[in-house]
Amino acid sequence: MPETAATGSTDPAGPEEQRAPRPSGTDLRPGDGSPPWPGLTSLQVLRQLESGPRGLVETEAAERLTRFGENTVPSWRTASWPRRLVGSLRDPFTAVLLCLGLVSATVAAWGTASVILSLVVVSCVLRSSGERRADRSVAALRKLVATTATVLRRTAEDGTPRSREIPVDELVPGDVIRLGPGDLVPADVRLLRASGLTVHQAALTGESAPVSKHPVDAPEPGGGLFDQPQLCFQGSSVASGSGTAVVVSTGAHTLFAATRSGPGPRVASAFDRSVHGISWVLIRFMLLTPPLVLMANAALRGRGFETLPFAVAVAVGLTPEMLPVIVTTALARGASLLARDHRVIVKRLPALHDLGAVDVLCLDKTGTLTQDRPVLGHALDVEGRPAPQVLHWAGVNAWWTLQLADLPTPDALDEAILDAVEEDELLGYEGVAALPFDPVRRLSTAVVRRPGRLGLHTLVVKGGAEDVIERCALTDDERARLLALAAREARSGLRILAVATSERQARNRDYTPADERGLTLVGFVALSDALAPTAADALKVFSDRGVTVKVLTGDHPGTAARACTDLGLDPGVVLSADTVESLTDGELADLARRTTVFARCAPEHKARIISVLRADGHTTGFLGDGVNDLPALHAADVGICPRDAVDVARESADVVLADKDLTAIAHAITSGRHSSVNIATYLRITLSSNLGNVIAMLATGLMLPFLPMLPAQILVQNLCFDAAQLAFAFDRLHPAALRAPTVLQPRNFLRFITGFGLLGAAADLATFGVLALALHDAAESGEAAFHSGWFTENLLTQALVMLLLRTGCRAAGGGTAGPVRWAAAGLAVIGILLPLSPLGPLLGMTALPPLYYPLLGAVLAVYTVALTVARSRYDRPGTGR
C-alpha cells in the first residue's frame, strides 16, 4: 500500500483491501499508553487490529465498542454526589461556619452548635444538588455539540466503504478515520495517508509550532514517541493538511489518558477575583468578631466565656452562607433557559457571568456580519479586462485541491467558484498533488497534468492577491501596477483572489510551499459577500446595551469596511496587521479604543488585540469558528463559536451557538447580565443587612445587662433570612436593569454595604428605644419580650431591604408579585407570628404588648423613607453600582 502524499484517488483502499489474518499469538486489544506496536509496518498494524484500509463493518464496530468501551477519558467524568457534598466544605464561608460550630460544641453550647451545623448541612446539600443538576443539564447540552469524527465503515463484509460522521466516543480500535484542518485527533492513530499534514501537539509536549506528520513504511528506531511522524495522539489537533489513519488506542488506553489527569485549572474571572477578595475581608472580620465580643463584654460587663455562644452566633450572622447555592442556581437556570429558548449552549457555567460583563465583542466578518457563502462577481485578466479563462484556472485549483487533499467539503470561496464553473471543464486534467490552504501562507496549490503535455506538471496557485503576486516573477513596476489593480477592486468592497500558474518538469518527490515561486499571474477573481440577514439588527442591540463591536478579520481593509458600512457600523480608520506589528502594547491599546476594524489579521494579531483590550480594563468576548481563531478564543474572557465550527474551536469555546446568528449572542449577554445582577443583588442585600444587625447587636450588647438576642434566636433569624434569599436566583428584572455590562466593583460594593449597613444599624438601635418605651412596666418578662421585639423587627427590616434594595426594584414595581415579593412577605409573617406561636417559648420569646406594634410601624415607616432616599442618591448617574 503506498504511504506517501495523496495522489489522484480519494479512496484509501489499495491492493491490500482484504484483511490479512493476524499473526498467531497476537491479541487484539486497545493500547495502554505505550507506543502502538513499535517496529511494525502499517500493513502489520492493520493486521494486528484485524482491520483494513476500507474500515470496519458496522456489526464488528458495535461488538468492539461493547468489548473496549466508549472512547472517553475517565478522569473527565463528573464527580459523584457524595464527592460533591464533601467538596462543598472547601468553600471558605462553609469552612468558617464548620469551625464556629465545632467551637460551640467544644464549650457545650449544643443548641448553637446544632443550628450552625444544620446551616452547614443545608448549604452543602443545596450546593451539591444544584451543581449536580447543573452538570447534568450542561452534559445534556454538550451532546448537541459533541465532537464527531469522519469514519470509514461498511454495512457488510463485501460492501462499499462510506464516510460518515459519528460521535468520537463511538470510535473503536481498527476504525479508519479521516482528518482535516481544525479536527481534533479523536484517539491515538497510525497514519495511512497524508497530504501536507501538520499537527499541534502543545497539549502533550508544550511546543507551540505545528509538527509535520506523514506515514512511513517502517518506523526508524530512536527518537521520542512524539517525534514519530506516523503517529498522532489524542489531545492534539490538525493545523493544516489532511490525512487518513487507523485508530490504535481509545479511551483510557490512549497516551493522553495515561499522562493527563484532566483539563488544567482555568484562570479565575474578574467576578471570581472580586467576590473572593470581598469574601476574605469578611472572613477575617468574622474570625476577629468572637474575641472582640468576649473582650468587650469582659471589660464592660464582667462577663466571661458564657458569652462565647453569642459571639459565635454574631460571627455566623455575617456569613453569606447561600452564596455558592445562589451562584450555582442562577447560572444553571440561565444556561438552561438559553439552551431551551435561544439554542445557545453554555459549556462552562461561570462563562455566563462573564458574558454579562462583556463590553467589547470581537468577531470575524465572514459568517457573522456576512453569510458563509460568497457569490462570484467577475474575473479579470492582468489588464483588468473580463477573462473567463481566469475563472477556469481558479476552478481547477478549487476542484483538485478538494479531491487531492481529502477535504470533506470545499470552503466557502472554493464552493462559490465551483458553482460558477462547469464540472466537465475540470475533469480533463489528472491530479498529481495538492497543498491545501493554511492561514499562514494564505494560498492553496493544486498540481495537475494537462492533456498532451507529457513530462510536465502545472502548478495552479490561488490565494490572497498580495500573497500570490509576491510569488510571481514580475518587475517592481509590474508588481506595483497589479497590486494597484487589485486594491482598486477591493476598495469597492469585493473579495479579490489572485490566480497564477507555472509549468514544471514532472517529478516523483513531494511538492512543498518552496515550489510556490516564479509563478505567472493569470488574473483575478472577485467575489462579494452577502450580508447576514440579522446582523444589522444585532449590531443595533449591542449598541443599545453598551457593547462595542470590533471586527478582527483576515480580509482586505476595503472589503471589511464595505460590509461594516452596509450594516450601519461606522468603520472609521481601518487598522491593518502591518501597523499592529509596529506598535507597542500601550500604543495599540490607545488606537484600539478608537478603531472598529482590524484587517489582514493573522491568528497572533487577533490574540494580541484581545489581550491588549483586556489589559485596558475591558471584558472581551470573541466569536470565531476556524483553526486560525484558536489563539483569540483562548485570549478572550469568553470564547464563542457556532455549532458548525471546526472541532478544535468548538471544544475550546465556552459558549456554542446552535445557529450562527448574532442575535443569539445578544440574548446570551442579556441572560448573563440577568444572572449576574441577581447574584450581585444577593451579595449587596445580604451583607449590608448582616453588617447592620451585627453592629446593632454589638452596641446594644454592651449597653444591656443581658444579651440582646439569644444565640439560638440569632441563628434561627439567620436561617429564615437565608431561605428567603434563595428567591433572588429566580428574580424577574426590568429590561432597564440589563442595559449596561454587569461588573462587580469592590470599591462601590463596599461603599454600598457600609452605607446601608449603618442605616440598618440605626433602625435597629431606634427599635431599642421603642422597646424600652413599650416594656418599661414589664419587669418580669422584659428580657424575653426584648428578644421577641428585636427578632420581629430584624425580620421585618430584612424583608423591607429585600424589596427596596434589589436591583431594578422601582422599574419592576408593577405587575404580578414575583418570587422576591413572596419571599419577603413570608419573612415578615414569620417575624410577626413566630413569637406568638408555640415555638416562641422554646426559643426564649414571648408575646409583645400591643403598644409595641404601632411604635414599630413608625420606625419602619421612617426606615422605608430613609432607604428610598439613600437608594435614589446611590443610583444617581456617575455613582456606580
Produce the secondary structure layout.
Elements: H1 42-48, E1 56-57, H2 58-68, H3 81-87, H4 92-106, H5 110-142, E2 148-154, E3 162-167, E4 176-179, E5 188-200, H6 202-205, E6 211-212, E7 231-232, E8 237-249, H7 255-259, H8 270-301, H9 308-317, H10 323-342, E9 344-346, H11 350-357, E10 360-363, E11 375-381, H12 388-404, H13 412-419, E12 430-435, E13 443-449, E14 456-464, H14 465-470, H15 476-491, E15 495-505, E16 520-528, H16 535-544, E17 548-552, H17 557-566, E18 575-576, H18 577-581, H19 585-594, E19 597-599, H20 603-615, E20 620-623, H21 630-635, E21 638-642, H22 647-652, E22 655-657, H23 662-703, H24 711-725, H25 746-774, H26 782-804, H27 819-833, H28 839-842, H29 852-874
Parallel strand pairs: 1-2, 10-17, 10-20, 17-19, 18-19, 20-21, 21-22
Antiparallel strand pairs: 2-3, 2-4, 4-8, 5-6, 5-7, 5-8, 9-22, 11-16, 12-13, 13-14, 14-15, 15-16
Describe the structure.
The protein has 881 residues and is of the alpha/beta class. It folds into four domains: 1-71 and 171-264, Calcium-transporting ATPase, cytoplasmic transduction domain A; 81-136 and 268-334 and 669-874, Calcium-transporting ATPase, transmembrane domain; 344-370 and 532-658, Rossmann fold; 375-528, Calcium-transporting ATPase, cytoplasmic domain N (3-Layer(aba) Sandwich). Helices cover 47% and strands 14% of the residues. The chain is built from 29 helices and 22 strands. The strands form three sheets. Strands 1, 2, 3, 4, 5, 6, 7 and 8 form an eight-stranded mixed β-sheet that branches. Helix 22 (647-652) links the parallel strand 21 (638-642) and strand 22. Residues 1-35, 260-266 and 810-816 have low confidence and may be disordered.
